[in-house]
């Protein structure tokens, strides 16, 4: 029997899974601590559940990470503000402990492939997956393949119109101040309003602003990539009244410029929530492991 | 002998070429008038030069256009503000007149594939081609293939930070006012400064603003697509002092966030001019024709 391990490595939480698909998976989670302790814990869980059936392990990691197979630091977390994890050989450590091939990608790339295989974007060749949580990350699938490019997308860091009169908050991204993440992440919401995205009441003006920033980002990506679907996930998007608000603003921003039914009449099918809940990242890591294993059999 | 026809259809000018590659091509150009007259003229030129050797014709057209092979209006120019060309069956007309298979794509997509095959982005699997002329259009190549998606990218229409205090010009895009095209196209430059991009002196403050908007767009695309190269072409970019200005602003905007040598030290190889001059569009149209023909032989 072939079994795969998956690790979704977040800055505050790790999710580990063992299995093959959403119907056949066991998942656990624990807080992120030091690299050695956390990775050891993840590996122990995977080894215990998978035993000798383990064929490969996938990692979907917070970043930035080095995905260049030709690089000496391939598989490393690179310039993260989390100091203990800087220049950490993540893929290497997992491969050494579990003695298995390791697929390595970003957390959002992993989540995107899972949503593309089993979730909201099944059989969609061109889509974007965005997670709006403590931070904001995005992944793009184009012509059926993940976008990697030079490094990997860092969609949370695009600049948007920021009307300081309407929103005097300077933004909290340590690199860019008022990029998308600096203005619209869960962390920015908490800093601006002194309340969490989870607790802010649904009629708070925070949400008008939040929908506006996310709609600006969505319309930027519609113009840049012409996706067939945009999946918006992450903790902040669990406030699901945001979906119609974002769609309305996207409609206003694009102003009928894209003469496609999907953009003019079917925005409710175009901008959608994920379907794998909190498990898209870890399931995607399992899927990446599976793909790596199958490539090896070719 | 196999010969291909190429048409680069611009809003003000058509370029037509007959040949196989940059070293073997004849090119002519004439102003865009009514669809029937202009297309007839292009077809006459191609037929005359290619004779019975014509294997296929490529069109790189201004847009928006319908590229969905499953659509009833595939090959049409759709919602252009140029009324005579609205809902015009461009690919169909060329195919009927020349009795040849027709490859159809946007003008910038055509230019991008030519720069990728013979020009500035040779052998680059992930790059962006932008043209900054009367309007602004962009194309992306990801994993070696053009991005099409739902329709095709309309990169000129992304929204950017617009500081009205510094730049009170409202923008001239009829759909979005101050999108990138509305702020930074040749048309916006002329409208704002009452002088053309060609004539404005190099020390005019217009260029600081222009570099800033283009750098904002470039950094948005770096974060979205993680390209390995960005080619900036079009009439406005012929003012080549813009290149170092844009690179400097991109460096400032990204603020060392992308820990890759290409972004930190080699921006002069990352943000580059095209190498096929004004012929990338028409050569790309020829290349698209060639690819269509070769597919047919498979």
Protein described:
2 copies of one chain form a homodimer. With 298 residues, chain A is an alpha/beta fold. Chain A contains 10 helices and 12 strands. In chain A, helix 1 (35-50) packs parallel to helix 2. The mean pLDDT of chain A is 96. The interface between A and B is large, with 48 and 48 residues.
Brief summary of the model shown:
Chain A contains 10 helices and 12 strands. Chain A is an alpha/beta fold. The first copy, chain A, has a 5-stranded mixed sheet, with helices on both faces. Chain A has a 5-stranded mixed sheet with strand order 10-9-8-11-12, sandwiched between helices. In chain A, strands 5-6 form a two-stranded antiparallel ribbon.
Mean pLDDT figure of chain A: 96
Our measurement of the CA-to-CA distance between the termini of chain A, rounded to an integer number of angstroms, reads 18 Å
Total number of strands of chain A = 12
Oligomer: homodimer
Largest interface, chains and sizes: A-B, 48 and 48 residues
Could you tell me the strand content of chain A as a percent range? 15-25%
Helical residues, percent of chain A: 25-40%
Low-confidence stretches of chain A: none
Structural Rg of chain A: 19 Å
User: Number of helical segments of chain A?
Assistant: 10
The profile of the biggest β sheet of chain A is: 5 strands, mixed
Q: Strand sequence of the main sheet of chain A, in spatial order?
A: 3-2-1-4-7
Class computed from helices, strands and strand pairing of chain A:
alpha/beta
Shape of chain A: globular
N-to-C order of helices and strands of chain A: EEEHEEEHEHEEEHHHEHHHEH
């Amino acid at each position: 029997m072939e079994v795969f391990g998956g690790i979704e490595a977040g800055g505050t939480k790790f999710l580990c899974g063992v299995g093959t698909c959403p119907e056949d998976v066991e998942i656990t989670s624990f807080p992120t601590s030091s690299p050695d302790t956390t990775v050891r814990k993840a590996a122990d869980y995977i080894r215990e559940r998978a035993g000798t059936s383990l064929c490969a392990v996938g990692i979907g990691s917070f970043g930035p990470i080095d995905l260049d197979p030709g690089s000496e630091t391939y598989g490393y977390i690179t310039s993260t503000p989390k100091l203990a994890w800087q220049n950490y050989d993540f893929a290497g450590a997992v491969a050494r402990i579990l003695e298995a091939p390791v697929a390595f990608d970003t957390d959002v790339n992993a989540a995107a492939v899972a949503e593309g295989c089993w979730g909201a974007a099944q059989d969609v060749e061109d889509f974007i997956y965005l997670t709006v949580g403590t931070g904001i990350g995005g992944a793009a699938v184009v012509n059926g393949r993940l976008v990697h490019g030079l490094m990997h997308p860092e969609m949370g860091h695009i600049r948007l119109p920021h009307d300081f009169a309407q929103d005097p908050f300077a933004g909290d991204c340590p690199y860019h101040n008022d990029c998308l993440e600096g203005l619209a992440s869960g962390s920015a919401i908490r800093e601006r309003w002194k309340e969490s995205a989870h607790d802010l009441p649904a009629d708070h003006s925070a949400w008008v602003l939040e929908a506006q920033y996310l709609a600006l980002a969505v319309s930027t990506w519609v113009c840049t990539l012409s996706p067939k679907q945009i999946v918006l996930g992450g903790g902040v998007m669990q406030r699901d009244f945001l979906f119609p608000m974002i769609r309305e603003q996207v409609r206003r921003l694009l102003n009928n410029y894209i003469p496609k039914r999907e953009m003019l009449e079917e925005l409710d099918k175009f901008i959608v929530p994920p379907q794998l809940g909190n498990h898209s990242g870890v399931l995607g890591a399992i899927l990446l492991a599976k793909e790596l294993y199958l490539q090896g059999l070719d």
